[in-house]
TrEMBL record:
Name the UniProt record assigns to this protein: Tryptophan 7-halogenase
Lineage of producing organism: Bacteria, Pseudomonadati, Pseudomonadota, Alphaproteobacteria, Sphingomonadales
Superkingdom, taxonomy of origin: Bacteria
Transmembrane regions listed in the UniProt entry: none
Length: 503
């Protein structure tokens, strides 16, 4: 690309929520000199105001931007996150964790789950929590960054943070690096009659914001990708029927857990996300089975501290845009679609779409071969995450609740059906190319929700029973020893943030 061509890179971002400011920050950081980046947002409309739990891939974004971790923790009131606890999902009174990082260790050819399944048949296996460093640390409210010794096990982590503060933090970052912000209400999206491409955003005071490529970050409104370009929507309510969330933060006692809680309720589930200054709570539910009033009542009755405001209802339809990139427009964040926050994937989907986008960085609409490829990758990524979420609902034994009976009996996507059958027949789990969730993630949810594997790979029999016992016991001992010396999460976070504070 010649310098002249590079100078014509010209982006307009519509919307300044988490998606808009992540896009702005990444463009400011990675596009060549001379690129114009403008962002339009309306304070009168505001942002969705939820979205606080992340997965470890958030480090890729923060590192790419060169953010200092301590600064980030202070600015966004973040806490550390080692996994998600699913309480009551299989049945009332039962809980398991999808913890980040490894569970157990393999031996030779096979992954750990094969030895664990064999040990289960022999009556030797304990629940997975005994073989996960992250889960053991999380349940003990412990936290450690990095490895204590080169031999120590790795403990991957993510964060809970205030998404509004994160967006403000990235706004400062972006504006310092040349992004122009326009405050105002987009009244109209102007398209070129011939090409059908977007030419400008027209604000309600008649300002015209022109650009060559537009990024739709207008949230559920999807003003550009849907309103103007009608890219279509794949509705996934048949497998993810929840369509409402009632959210309210509450006061915290300051002894925050290093994990997210997801608690099954009558017609959905409740999240609990501890931040430094408050706890984020919400009830995700299906309006066919629960009224807004009942949801608010249940939520308010199940808070750790005083509610900081009135519950705020949010309506949504699960699914995704048929084309994430259409003509000269890319949809990001809620404008691209919505999967439930069950596995904290929305912010990740913003960053992964942007990282793919940066590898092609188009001047105008983009070459159709590239756009097709981008959309195929996006479809794959979204569909596999959908499958993972659907598994949580389907594999339940909560008989008698119409909502849970419905999801237990729903028809599954063929891709998920195949994965479940592979597990059931021989404990086999295969992570497909570029799929977000790893074998260990699938393993924890399949086993945690009580989906039984009828058999295991016979190669697991190559270990003698004593060797198998030693494999399990050694793993558990190493994990306990590691966790015993870890500091408590809350004091660790406070002291870590204080290091290198500007005087
Ligand atoms: P928004 O925050 O809605 O921002 C939209 C922007 O567009 C705003 O700046 C608004 O002012 C602007 N805008 C809209 N219309 C106009 C107009 N006409 N003129 C000018 N500006 C306009 N994600 C996670 O990763 N983890 C979670 O735990 C998580 N939990 C969630 C829970 C719920 C219930 C929901 C609904 C979402 C959750 N998410 C979560 C998703 C997360 O909130 C979003 O992905 C993220 O905040 C991005 O939102 P956004 O920027 O796309 O949209």
């Amino acid at each position: 690309m010649s310098l002249k061509d590079q100078q014509s890179l010209d982006f307009v971002i519509a919307g300044g929520g988490t998606a808009g400011w992540i896009a702005a920050a990444l463009l400011a950081r990675f596009s060549p000199p001379g690129t114009r980046v403008q962002l339009v947002e309306s304070e009168a409309i505001g942002t969705v105001g939820v979205g606080e739990a992340t997965i470890p891939q958030i480090h890729l974004l923060n590192n790419a931007l060169g953010l200092d971790e301590r600064d980030f923790l202070r600015e966004t009131k973040a806490t550390f996150k080692l996994g998600i606890e699913f309480d009551g999902w299989q049945r009332e009174g039962h809980a398991y964790m999808h913890a980040f990082g490894q569970v157990g260790r393999g031996a030779g050819l096979l992954p750990f789950q094969q030895y664990w399944l064999r040990a289960q048949q022999l009556g030797l296996a304990k629940p997975l929590k005994h073989y996960s460093l992250n889960e053991t640390a999380a349940r003990g409210l412990k936290m450690q960054r990095g490895r204590r010794t080169p031999q120590s096990l790795e403990m991957p982590y993510a964060y809970h943070f205030d998404a509004g503060l994160y967006a403000s933090y990235l706004r400062r970052y972006s504006e310092l690096r040349g992004v122009t912000r326009h405050e105002g209400m987009i009244a109209r999206v102007e398209c070129d009659g011939e090409s059908g491409e977007i030419a400008a955003l027209v604000l309600d005071d008649d300002r015209r914001i022109e650009g060559r490529f537009f990024i739709d970050c207008t949230g559920f409104r999807a003003l550009l990708i849907d309103g103007a370009l009608e890219a279509g929507f794949d509705d996934w309510s048949n497998v993810l029927p929840c369509n409402r969330a009632m959210a309210v933060p509450c006061a915290t006692g300051g002894d925050f857990t290093p994990y997210t809680c997801s608690i099954a309720r009558k017609a959905g589930w409740q999240w609990r996300i501890p931040l430094q200054h408050r706890i984020g709570n919400g009830y995700v539910y299906c309006s066919d089975h629960l009224s807004d009033e009942e949801a608010a009542e249940t939520l308010l009755a199940n808070l750790d501290g005083k509610a900081l405001g009135d519950p705020k209802p949010i309506k949504f339809t699960t699914g995704k845009r048929r084309k994430h990139w259409h003509r000269n427009c890319l949809a990001l964040g809620l404008a691209a679609g919505f999967l439930e926050p069950l596995e904290s994937t929305s912010i990740h989907l913003i960053q992964s779409a942007m990282s793919r986008f940066l590898t092609v960085l188009p001047k105008g609409a983009g070459d159709p071969a590239i756009v097709d490829h981008f959309n195929t990758q996006a479809d794959f990524e979204w569909e596999r995450i959908r499958d993972f979420l659907v598994l949580h609902y389907w594999a339940n034994e909560r008989e008698g609740d119409p909502f849970w009976d419905g999801v237990r009996n729903m028809e599954l996507p063929a891709t998920l059906q195949r994965k479940i059958e592979q597990w059931q027949s021989a404990g086999f789990i295969h992570r497909e190319h570029e799929e977000l969730f790893t074998e260990v993630g699938w393993f924890q949810v399949l086993a945690g929700q009580g989906v039984e594997a009828r058999s295991y790979n016979p190669a697991a029999d190559s270990l003698s029973e004593d060797e198998l016992k030693a494999l399990l016991a050694d793993t558990e001992t190493a994990i306990s020893a590691e966790v015993r010396q870890m500091p408590d999460h809350a004091p660790f976070l406070r002291s870590y943030m204080m290091q290198n504070m500007p005087q």
